[in-house]
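JOB MANIFEST
job_type = single_chain_structure
chain_count = 1
residues = 135
[input]
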Amino acid sequence: MTNEFQKTLAAVRALALKDLEAASDEDIRTELAAEGIDPDQLAASIAVSLDDVLASSLRQQAAAAKVAMQIHTPPKKLLRPTLDRIKERIARAFAADPQLATAFREGGRQSNADLETLYDDLVLMGKISDTDDVC
């Protein structure tokens, strides 16, 4: 389409919309009836069409999300240092950043798995460098 044609089409649409906005509901019903169109049937068919378009769009979005999830490469497996080194590095991270805080379920002593997960989280947050020595 040429630029001139697009401008003409936009002007026609604007005039049609202005005409439609100026018409009352009864005027529109009368025009449709004069053309042999049942207004209620037309409204129902438009509603079905809109439902179909919406459902199709949602299916496309879901399919695209599914594909994106399938091609997403999982993060590299973190090589962790020894547990003693993990504890030391976590303590250093908390000492270096006074705003850093954590909470543990059940409030008691943290399990080794809790500490390893905390270490992984701090590495992902950039609070601990994963380029240091790994044992």
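[summary]
Helices lie at 3-22, 25-34, 39-71, 83-96, 112-124.
The longest helix spans residues 39-71.
exit_status = 0
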